[in-house]
């Protein structure tokens, strides 16, 4: 793992964006040239149900400040995946509490392919939260 | 997108809306080389311009863009956009489509869709893609999710200042582009020419289009779309957030005196859908639907309608007699109340007319296909194979064969592709049996 | 039965050499991102063999840069940083394939829509650098993949011999697909056989059914298994196996008719199947055309079952047939003159919780049955035109003559002086015995909204209930094929617009009223749409599936079964006994043709022994490491030693 000394390392926000909804949604924000904080990184996922509890905690440990899971919501192409993931997140929240992580650092939301305003709202809110909170891991 | 001037295909689909795209995808999926001819600068038809769609309330773009992209990237599909069909001829050798490629004034092979031209263009005109509620440049990408993502110059409004040519990084602007005739030969054709809404002009009872804040349902779709002209629902005349919105159903349908005696089939459901979306975005607004019968006949439609009623949307059974401009931008709706009040009236901040659905294509002089008395293309086997027309080897799909919602359109488009594929198979003699043998028993 | 094959085994030992190609996009990217600076940074990233830039990476010269590096063996993984992947990912993948590379050893960095169009200055350059570095982190571990190929039998089983099943079978067979049509009764024709003249165009039901059935029976590519039902089911797309057995007692009454002849109300009698006993069908696809059942009113519902003069609309249609011999006067049914009759709409349809009574199983039919309004009006018109002395009253909630030519039928009914009365859902008409001496056995009382809520009493000789459509009795198939069912109990498609005739189970399609109420034309459209999907699927002799499916590392797997529990598509992953190092062990095994690739199994494996090809957890971790790493963006220039390893 790389060093954590950079001033920007700790406020990075990860978006886990579904390839059928939220990822094209992020592109739509780009087409509209609507600016948002540059510490936001979009990762394309088939379905966020793939990630185990540990993945989220590891991300925070590595210095990610916030994670937004941008799913398709109830319109998920994988039947049952959304429910399974929502259940997993409850456990992630428990684990986050145990580790003293503010649970506002992790959020689940649904973003459609042209939901520009919802996307920007989510990103800006998370950015605010991440800036309010101290970094999830202290620099060595 | 490379489309030579004379090209040969297995099938040609006239119309690049959801019906045409589905037909093309279902033909191409079987390996048939298929051309799609679209009069607009983008494929996607009416559906790509909608906000959300009933009864699932999916965002329309999320459903349409995957099919548009699949067609655009398909190795067996060639798209011809911005083309005017001149003639569709059918003879023993197959179908021949003559058309004019209208100039975009942009070299489509060079344009990378970056919109630099659009940002630098000084000319601003009303954007019909946004219901006329916002502006667009003389050169622009037609709309955000258009396919192809290529610029289009509107020569009517261009002042030839040269700014677009200066900033274009690929030197793609071609002020001297000319209309070009093209010809497509195919063995079979599917007509998927869609619809237009009837116009409010010429309807004095609705104010001929002169009453402010009376809009049609497609304009409301744009107001509701997440990437709409205002980004939220505002009253066009003054930007007020409307407190009271009314829908006038059968505004030009089921009424021979207004030119459309048939039922336009999907207006009830889109009005219910828009009302639901409005009550979501404007929770305090009163929404009233004036109707004759609510025709919520499709799968899960009735349940959708009952949900709308439970949400507090008001349904008033009444035929609206007329609309007038009221006080402060309001619209006065005059109607016959069925509960005993007789002729009465009510003011609303914004009124949406559920206009009738008219054929998008008048084949007269272009294609010798038979029409019904309603002007839509006639099916000769309306029960056993509704996509079969009186022209052998020419099939019809979607609203071209009469008003239809998206679900029924997509299904019929698949059926048309099936019948066209059977026709092709029978021609090549590769498979046993002949297409549409049933017709010989009719 | 053939197993899906992978054309190439991943060459694990190969050293990763990543080529990074960064696009200027004619200023769209380079105006905000210092592209050359990014390239310099990428050259320092572990695993990166070359980093290049071009004004338009998607242009032929841009693509040629990539292809030449591949051909020269300088690189074996590709990262392109340009516009959104939806625009040009396929362009670059096919360039790689043309140069002899594997198109799946490719990762895209989206630095236009997600960087230069939304960020500016140093922040844009830094974010682009981190995103591309992250893409290289993933690219280093990308293994070559091939689309999964499952051989598919060019054969279809169609279940149901109504017009949907017949339409689908003919369409498939005309395309050269061999078809087995399984029908549980001895007749072909289904629901349409119970009709006489179809609205609004007046076709003769017998003629429609006979037209299709004759072609079915003559078609060399179609085998009809009438009086038979599906009893077992297994396999997956391209390779299903169905057991079909005779339905006990399903044979025509002796001497009733001859094979090939039409029996009103039943359909065309099929010659007995030569096989006789139980058989096994091996097939590539299955089309479900199991149709609907007519709603049977509860005893006492609108007087049904208690009064002989209360009948259902399907019964009336059967009784009056083509109204032969009824011209000129009063309609006569069973010797009884009908001077006045009432048709009540929405019986067993549009039921509302709290207003309508649930059936014995707790079900309400909340759906609209779509066809009954037009059917009722069509019948009313036929009666009024043939028997002008018979008065017809239609009691309705909404008239739903939505289809082409149907509104005209409604207008014609007004011309025929059919009397319409509208009732509210909570003000159902009441059917009672008529007053003695009234001359009519029944009276119907209705609060009519068309006359300002006046309570009207109509003396009638006949009450006809326009009963709706319910799902057919297919509980056994639902159980056997694991079919999804909606809240309305009809079979549930994957998506009403994206995939309207498909199910989440690949290779099984829906045709007609098993899915929802439809009229005959809509049913045939749905059947043809199902057929075209099936034909496309079978057109190549094999089915190509995305390679992005789960794969188990049997060396790591300890057979906990957690993945089996988590799997969203039961059957896609199962525990099996296999031989490893000479010892029998229990391990998880994926059936790629059934795997959806969602990754639900990946998250729950305690041994990290399962991954989605092309989207592995380790690849995501490598990307996160690169995003948080300051290696490429800090002045120090130091390269982390173990990033992404």
Number of strands of chain B: 25
Broad structural category of chain B: alpha/beta
The total count of helices of chain C amounts to: 15
Return the domain count of chain B: 3
Uncertain residue segments of chain B: 431-437
Proportion of helical residues of chain B: 10-25%
Largest sheet of chain B: 5 strands, parallel
Radius of gyration of chain B: 23 Å
Q: Tell me what portion of residues of chain B adopts beta-strand conformation.
A: 25-35%
Give your account of this protein's structure:
The complex is a heterotrimer of chains A (140), B (442) and C (645). Chain A is of the alpha/beta class and 140 residues long. Chain A is 39% helix and 19% strand. Chain A has one domain: Rossmann fold, CATH 3.40.50. Chain A contains 4 helices and 4 strands. In chain B, strand 7 and strand 8 form a beta hairpin. Chain C has 3 domains: 146 residues, Rossmann fold (3-Layer(aba) Sandwich); 205 residues, FAD/NAD(P)-binding domain, CATH 3.50.50; 157 residues, FAD/NAD(P)-binding domain (3-Layer(bba) Sandwich). The longest helix of chain C has 19 residues. The chains are: A alpha/beta (140), B alpha/beta (442), C alpha/beta (645). Chains in contact: A-B, A-C, B-C. Chains B and C meet through helix 2, helix 7 and helix 8 of B and helix 3, helix 6, helix 7, helix 10 and helix 12 of C.
Based on the model shown, name its key terms.
heterotrimer; A: 140 residues; alpha/beta; Rossmann fold; four-stranded parallel sheet; 4 helices; 39% helix; globular; disordered N terminus; B: 442 residues; FAD/NAD(P)-binding domain; 3 domains; five-stranded parallel sheet; 9 helices
List strands and helices in order, with pairings:
The complex is a heterotrimer of chains A (about 140), B (about 450) and C (about 650).
Chain A: E1 12-18, H1 22-31, E2 40-45, H2 53-62, E3 64-71, H3 81-98, E4 106-110, H4 116-132
Helix pairs in contact in A: 1-4, 2-3
Chain B: E1 6-8, E2 11-14, H1 18-28, E3 34-37, E4 52-53, E5 58-59, H2 60-73, E6 77-80, E7 83-91, E8 94-101, H3 116-120, E9 124-126, E10 135-137, E11 139-140, E12 152-153, H4 163-167, E13 180-186, E14 188-191, E15 195-197, E16 214-216, H5 217-224, E17 244-251, H6 267-281, E18 286-291, H7 301-310, E19 314-317, E20 320-325, E21 331-337, E22 342-348, E23 350-355, E24 357-359, E25 394-396, H8 406-428, H9 438-441
Parallel strand pairs in B: 1-13, 2-3, 2-14, 3-6, 14-25, 16-23, 17-18, 17-23, 18-19
Antiparallel strand pairs in B: 4-5, 7-8, 8-13, 9-10, 11-12, 15-24, 20-21, 21-22
Helix pairs in contact in B: 1-2, 1-8, 5-6, 6-7
Chain C: E1 18-23, H1 35-43, E2 48-54, H2 60-71, E3 77-82, H3 85-98, E4 106-110, H4 112-116, H5 121-139, E5 148-151, E6 155-159, H6 163-174, E7 178-183, E8 187-188, E9 197-198, E10 203-204, H7 205-218, E11 222-226, E12 228-236, E13 239-246, E14 262-263, E15 267-269, E16 279-283, E17 285-288, E18 292-294, E19 310-312, H8 313-320, E20 331-333, E21 336-338, E22 340-347, H9 372-386, E23 391-396, H10 406-415, E24 419-422, E25 430-433, E26 442-448, E27 454-460, E28 462-467, E29 469-471, H11 475-481, E30 508-510, H12 520-538, E31 542-545, E32 550-552, H13 562-566, E33 573-580, E34 583-590, H14 600-604, E35 610-612, H15 617-628
Parallel strand pairs in C: 1-2, 1-3, 3-4, 6-7, 6-17, 7-11, 17-30, 19-28, 22-23, 22-28, 23-24
Antiparallel strand pairs in C: 5-31, 8-15, 9-10, 12-13, 13-16, 14-15, 18-29, 20-21, 25-26, 26-27, 32-35, 33-34
């Amino acid at each position: 793992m790389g060093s954590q000394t950079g001033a920007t390392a700790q406020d990075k926000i990860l978006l886990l964006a579904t390839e059928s909804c939220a990822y094209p949604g992020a592109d739509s924000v780009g087409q509209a040239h609507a600016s948002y904080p540059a510490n936001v990184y979009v990762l394309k996922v088939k379905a966020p149900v793939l990630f185990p509890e540990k993945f989220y905690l590891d991300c925070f440990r590595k210095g990610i400040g916030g994670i937004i899971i941008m799913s398709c919501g109830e319109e998920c192409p994988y039947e049952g995946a959304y429910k399974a993931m929502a259940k997993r997140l409850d456990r992630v929240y428990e684990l986050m509490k145990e580790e003293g992580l503010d649970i506002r650092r992790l959020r689940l939301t649904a973003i459609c392919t042209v939901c520009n305003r919802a996307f920007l709202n989510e990103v800006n809110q998370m950015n605010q939260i991440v800036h309010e909170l101290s970094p999830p891991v202290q620099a060595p | 997108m490379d489309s030579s001037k004379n090209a040969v295909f297995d099938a040609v689909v006239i119309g690049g809306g959801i019906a045409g795209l589905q037909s093309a995808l279902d033909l191409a999926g079987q390996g048939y080389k298929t051309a799609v001819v679209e009069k607009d600068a983008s494929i996607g038809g009416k559906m790509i311009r909608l906000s959300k769609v009933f009864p699932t309330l999916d965002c329309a773009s999320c459903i349409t863009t995957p099919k548009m992209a699949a067609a655009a990237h398909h190795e067996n599909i060639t798209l011809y956009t911005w083309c005017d069909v001149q003639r569709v001829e059918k003879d023993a050798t197959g179908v021949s489509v003559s058309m004019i490629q209208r100039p975009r004034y942009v070299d489509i092979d060079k344009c990378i869709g970056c919109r630099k031209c659009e940002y630098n263009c000084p000319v601003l005109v009303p954007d019909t893609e946004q219901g006329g509620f916002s502006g667009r440049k003389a050169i622009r990408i037609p709309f955000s999710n258009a396919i192809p993502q290529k610029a289009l110059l509107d020569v009517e409004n261009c002042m030839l200042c040269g700014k677009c040519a200066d900033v274009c990084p690929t030197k793609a602007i071609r002020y001297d582009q000319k209309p070009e005739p093209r010809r497509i030969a195919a063995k079979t054709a599917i007509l998927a020419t869609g619809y237009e809404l009837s116009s409010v002009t010429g309807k004095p009872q609705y104010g001929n289009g002169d009453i402010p804040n009376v809009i049609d349902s497609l304009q409301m779709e744009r107001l509701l779309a997440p990437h709409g002209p205002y980004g939220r629902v505002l009253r066009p005349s003054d930007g007020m957030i409307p407190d009271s919105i009314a829908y006038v159903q059968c505004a030009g349908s089921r009424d021979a005196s207004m030119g459309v005696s048939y039922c336009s089939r999907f207006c009830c459901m889109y009005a219910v859908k828009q009302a639901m979306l409005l009550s979501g975005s404007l929770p305090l607004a009163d929404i009233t639907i004036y109707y004759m019968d609510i025709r919520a006949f499709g799968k899960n439609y009735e349940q959708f309608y009952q949900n709308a009623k439970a949400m507090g949307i008001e349904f008033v059974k009444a035929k609206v007699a007329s609309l007038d401009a009221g006080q402060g931008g309001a619209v006065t709706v005059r109607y016959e109340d069925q509960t005993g009040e007789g002729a009465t009236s009510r003011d609303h901040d914004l009124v949406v007319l559920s206009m009738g659905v008219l054929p998008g294509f008048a084949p007269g002089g272009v294609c010798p296909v038979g029409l019904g008395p309603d002007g839509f293309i006639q099916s000769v086997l309306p029960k056993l194979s509704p996509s079969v027309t009186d022209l052998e080897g020419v099939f019809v799909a979607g609203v071209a064969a009469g008003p239809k919602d998206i679900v029924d359109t997509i299904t019929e488009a698949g059926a048309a592709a099936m019948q066209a594929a059977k026709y092709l198979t029978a021609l090549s003699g590769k498979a046993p049996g002949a297409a549409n043998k049933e017709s010989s028993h009719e | 039965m053939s197993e899906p094959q992978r054309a190439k085994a991943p060459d694990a030992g190969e050293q990763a050499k990543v080529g990074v190609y960064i696009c200027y996009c004619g200023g769209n990217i380079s105006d905000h991102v210092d592209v050359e600076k990014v390239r310099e940074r990428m050259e320092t990233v572990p695993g990166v063999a070359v980093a290049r830039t071009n004004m338009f990476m998607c242009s032929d010269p841009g693509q040629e840069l990539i292809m030449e590096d591949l051909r020269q063996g300088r690189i074996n993984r590709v990262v392109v940083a340009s516009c959104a992947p939806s625009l040009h990912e396929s362009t670059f993948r096919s360039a790689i394939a043309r140069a002899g590379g594997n198109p799946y050893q490719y990762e895209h960095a989206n630095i236009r829509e997600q960087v230069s169009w939304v960020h500016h200055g140093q922040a844009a350059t830094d974010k682009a650098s981190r995103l591309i570095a992250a893409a290289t982190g993933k690219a280093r571990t990308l293994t070559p993949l091939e689309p999964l190929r499952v051989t598919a039998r060019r054969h279809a089983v169609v279940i149901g011999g109504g017009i949907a099943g017949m339409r689908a079978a003919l369409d498939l067979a005309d395309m050269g697909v061999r078809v087995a049509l399984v029908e549980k009764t001895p007749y072909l024709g289904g629901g349409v056989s119970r009709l006489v003249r179809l609205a609004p165009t007046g076709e003769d039901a017998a003629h429609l059914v006979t037209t299709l059935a004759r072609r079915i029976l003559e078609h060399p590519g179609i085998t009809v298994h009438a009086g038979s039902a599906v009893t077992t089911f297994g396999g997956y797309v391209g390779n299903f196996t169905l057991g079909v057995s005779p339905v006990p007692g399903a044979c025509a009454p002796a001497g009733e008719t001859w094979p090939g002849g039409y029996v009103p109300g039943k359909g065309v009698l099929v010659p007995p199947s030569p096989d006789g006993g139980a058989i096994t069908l091996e097939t590539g696809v299955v089309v479900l055309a199991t149709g609907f059942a007519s709603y049977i009113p509860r005893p006492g519902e609108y007087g049904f079952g208690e009064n002989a003069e209360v009948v259902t609309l399907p019964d009336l249609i059967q009784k009056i047939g083509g109204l032969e011999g009824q011209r000129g006067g009063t309609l006569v049914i069973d010797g009884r003159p009908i001077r006045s009759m009432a048709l009540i709409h929405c019986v067993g349809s549009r039921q509302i919780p709290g207003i309508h009574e649930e059936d014995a199983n707790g079900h309400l039919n909340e759906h609209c049955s779509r066809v009954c309004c037009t059917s009722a009006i069509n019948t009313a018109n036929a009666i009024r035109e043939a028997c002008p002395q018979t008065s017809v009253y239609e009691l309705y909630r909404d008239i739903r003559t939505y289809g082409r030519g149907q509104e005209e039928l409604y207008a014609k009914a007004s011309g025929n002086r059919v009397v319409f009365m509208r009732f509210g859902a909570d003000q159902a008409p009441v059917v009672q015995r008529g007053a003695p001496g009234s001359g009519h056995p029944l009276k119907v009382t209705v609060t009519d909204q068309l006359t300002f809520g006046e309570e009207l009493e109509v003396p009638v000789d006949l009450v006809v209930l326009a009963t709706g459509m319910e799902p057919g009795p297919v509980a056994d198939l639902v159980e056997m094929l694991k079919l999804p069912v909606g809240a309305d109990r009809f079979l549930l498609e994957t998506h009403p617009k994206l995939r309207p005739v498909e199910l989440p189970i690949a290779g099984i399609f829906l045709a007609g009223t098993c899915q929802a109420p439809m009229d005959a034309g809509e049913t045939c459209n749905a059947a043809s749409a199902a057929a075209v999907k099936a034909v496309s699927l079978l057109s190549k002799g094999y089915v190509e599936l995305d390679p992005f499916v789960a794969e188990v590392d049997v060396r790591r797997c300890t057979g906990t079964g957690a993945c089996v529990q988590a799997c969203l598509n039961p059957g896609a992953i199962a525990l099996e006994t296999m031989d490893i190092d000479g010892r029998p062990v229990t391990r998880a095994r994926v059936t790629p043709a059934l795997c959806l690739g969602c990754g639900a199994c990946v998250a729950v494996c305690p041994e990290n022994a399962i991954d989605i090809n092309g989207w592995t957890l380790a690849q995501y971790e490598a990307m996160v490491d690169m995003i948080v790493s300051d290696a490429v963006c800090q002045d120090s220039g130091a390269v982390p030693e173990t990033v992404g390893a």
